[in-house]
Structure formats: structure tokens, C-alpha cells
Amino acid sequence: MDRLGRLLYVAAWLGLPLGIGLQLYLYPPKAPGFWWAYGAFALFFLFALSRGPKGAPRFLVHGLGAYLLFELGRAQGHGWALGYWAPALYLLAAFAYPVPWALAASGFWGGLLLLAPLLWGWERPYYAHFALSQPVLLALTLLLARFRELYGRARFWREQALTCPLTGLPNRRALEMALEREVARVERGAKPFSLVLLDLDDFKRVNDEKGHPEGDRLLKEVARYLVAHVRRGDLVGRLGGEEFAILLPETDPLQATRLAERLREGLRALGTTASFGVATYRGDLGELYQRADEALYRAKRAGKDRVARHTEDQGSR
């Protein structure tokens, strides 16, 4: 959860004890037994909040439903004020469950909230507004739960489509999109960027001799190393197999080559080697990848574990 999410989470749950405190201040219980009930609710709410942002709503929705019923029974003459807090019950249900279960949870407690005032003889004007609001809130709950499901599916497929499931790095499609954005920046006046392709040397031997689990472990270790040792703003992606790519914004061929050399030496320290191909954007995105690929295979043919820069970039500074 990001900083804003944590702030909103804390702000949302602070309202719960503050609301209960306000109720106690305005309408303090007269019977000692009620204080025990408040203590039990407080312990339950603390337990629910300890479950974290994902688990808390599933407990809070039922704790809040029971608390609202308890308050309706205790402060019958002033129970209409609790209608202000009823939306929180429905929102919690929408965040806690998918659509069918959100309907069941919010419908159960909402139904009890509708029946209880009838049994306790609420005044008609208060009850009419309260009763009409409940089905509206229920409908909004289902809409919110439905939107959450759709957003979750869209986010899942977006992440699956743009992320390598093994390493967590951006995949080829994500890299292509980033390259297109970088081209647009160059066209607006930014400095040219460079592309580094790297291929782990003799990776097939690792899979054949040590097994695919060891090969997967090595790929993940290399991915972590590359991400940790590039500059802020650079993008590391996995093209497939044992081939990775690094997008270096506003980087000339010499700077890109120096960075690739540092990475090559670092990978050797990890116990593996890689060959690198470096090319700089010169106005044609398709040609950029081709030139970087040619430089990579030149490094392979020259003996592996080395960095090669495309011949068009040899004299660049």
C-alpha cells in the first residue's frame, strides 16, 4: 500500500472509535452491563484492525452491524443518529467480499437494521428516511463490489500482459511501449537514449546440468542484480529465455558502454557471465533493436563475457 493509501486507511478507521466515543459522550449508558458490551466491541474492532487492510473489512462489517443494532436498542429515542453511520456498513461489505457475498452480508445486516426500528417503535418521519436509504445503499454496495471485481480483472490482465511472471520484470511488450515513449521524448527535444541487450552465456548448460529450478533461480538473481545496479529512471526488462534488455534514457553510446561493463563485471562476481550489445537511437526504433542485437552477437562471436558497441556508435562520445 502506498503512502496515500495508508493515510486513507488510518483516517477511515479512526472514525470508528471517534464515532463510538461521541455516542458515549452524548448518550452515556446508565446500566453497568452496557460498559462491558462496549469493551467487547472495542476488543473485537482492535482484533479486526490487526488483520490489515485486506482482512479487516471482513470482520468489521459484522462487528459494525452488531454494534449498530446494539446502539439502536440502547438509544431508541436517539437511534436516528445512527443512520449516519449505516453507509459505512455497506461500504465495508463492498470492500470485504465479491458481489454475491457482499449482497449476502450487507443484505443480512441491512435487513436487521430495517426491522429493528419497527420493533422498537421509531417515529414515522425518521424511519421513512432511514428505510428508503437502505436499499439505495445496498444497490450502491453491489455497484462498488462489481467495479472492484472488474478493476481487479483488468489489473490482473494488464500486469500479466506486461510483466514477466518469473522475474517480475517488464516483458517485451512493456519494453516496446517504454521505447515508444522514449522516442516521443526525443522528438520533443530530449537527448537520444541507448538500448543494451544482454544474453547470459551458456545458460542452456545450467539447465541441462543443474536442472530448470536452478536456471530459474539464476534468472531471478540476475534480474534482481540488474534492477539494483542501474540508474534511477533506467528500465530493465526480460525479452525471453536468458535475454534481458536495459533502456537508458538520455544516454550516449559511451555512457551506455561503461554501464554495461560495470554490469558485466558484477554478473561475473555472481558466478555467471553475459554478453552485451549496445546501440543508441538514431531516428529509427526498429533499426535500434537490430543494431543492438548485431552488437550482442558480435560479442558472442568474439568469445562471450564482453560488451560490444554497434559500429555506427563506435566513434560517439
From TrEMBL:
The keyword Methyltransferase does not apply. The chain crosses the membrane at residues 7-27, 33-50, 126-145. Keywords: Membrane, Transmembrane, Transmembrane helix. The keyword Transferase does not apply. Gene3D superfamilies: 3.30.70.270. It comes from the Bacteria. Residues 191-312 form the GGDEF domain. InterPro entries: Diguanylate_Cyclase, GGDEF_dom, Nucleotide_cyclase, Rev_trsase/Diguanyl_cyclase. This is GGDEF domain-containing protein. It comes from Thermus brockianus. The lineage of its organism: Bacteria, Thermotogati, Deinococcota, Deinococci, Thermales.
